[in-house]
Amino acid sequence: KMAGDSRFPDVDTDGSEKSEEMEIVVNVGGVRQVFYGDNLNQYPETRLAELVNCLSGGYDSIFSLCDDYDPGKREFYFDRDPDAFKCIIDVYYFGEIHMKKGICPICFKNEMEFWKVDLKFLDDCCKAHLSEKREELEEIARRVQLILDDLGVDASESRWKRCQKCIWKFLEKPESSYPARVIAVLSFLFILISSVVMCVGTIPDLQVVDAEGNRMEHPTLDSIETACIGWFTVEYVLRLISSPNKLHFALSFMNIVDVLAILPFYVSLTLTHLGAKLMELSNVQQAVQALRIMRIARIFKLARHSSGLQTLTYALKRSFKELGLLLMYLAVGIFVFSALGYTMEQSHPETLFKSIPQSFWWAIITMTTVGYGDIYPKTTLGKLNAAISFLCGVIAIALPIHPIINNFVRYYNKQRVLETAAKHELELMELNSAEGKAAGSRSELEDLSREGKEGPFYSSRIKVSHSDTFIHLLSEEKHYRTRLQSCK
Question: Higher confidence at residue 164 or residue 55?
Answer without folding.
Answer: 164
